[in-house]
Amino acid sequence: MFQDITPPISKGKMLIEKYGNGGFVISKVKYSGSVIVFPDKVINWQIDKDASLDKEVFEILYGKELLAEFASAEVFLIGSGKEQRDISDKIKHISKENNVNIEIMDTGAACRTYNVLLAEGRDVAAALIDVE
Fold first, then answer.
1. Do residues 105 and 132 touch, judged by C-beta distance below 8 A?
2. What total of structural domains would you count in the chain?
3. Residue 1, domain member (yes or no)
4. What gap in Å lies between CA 65 and CA 62, rounded to an integer?
5. N or C: which end of the chain has fewer CB within 10 A?
6. H/E segment holding residue 125
7. In a domain, 18, yes or no
């Protein structure tokens, strides 16, 4: 007999169900392209997949609209595409000064980690670069 290991997720929370083919399926809704995922909403993220992550990460973290949301998250995950990339020490330092815990990994790992943290009831956010 199979045991169901699907973590219980509170109703209304954004669960990442699938990724690939240039997009994501999050709580039964398909999104094309890159996204920023919070437990209660998804935002399309316009990013050049080949650009350095520094400018893009700085803009989403410290843009006027999202700063409070990222500052309240325990963990901010960055899914950097097919392979793990890094951000500069300057951005890491600025984030640490503002109490934003950044974890960078490939997009697949970021999706899985987001779901685990969400299931644990943690306040998590993720910026995810789509993969083909």
1. no
2. 1
3. no
4. 8
5. N
6. strand 124-128
7. no
pLDDT tens digits, the chain, 132 residues: what are they? 666 656 677 788 999 999 999 999 999 999 999 999 999 999 999 887 777 787 777 777 666 566 666 667 889 999 999 999 988 888 888 788 877 788 999 999 999 999 999 999 999 999 999 999
- Is 82 inside any structural domain? yes
Flag whether 14 is in a domain. Answer: no
State the residue range of the domain holding 124. Answer: 33-128
Which domain CATH number covers 78? 3.40.1230.10
- Please, are residues 101 and 76 in contact by the beta-carbon 8 Å criterion? yes
Rounded Cα–Cα distance for residues 47 and 43 (Å): 12
Closest C-alpha among 126, 127, 128, 114 to residue 9: 114
CA 91 to chain centre: 17
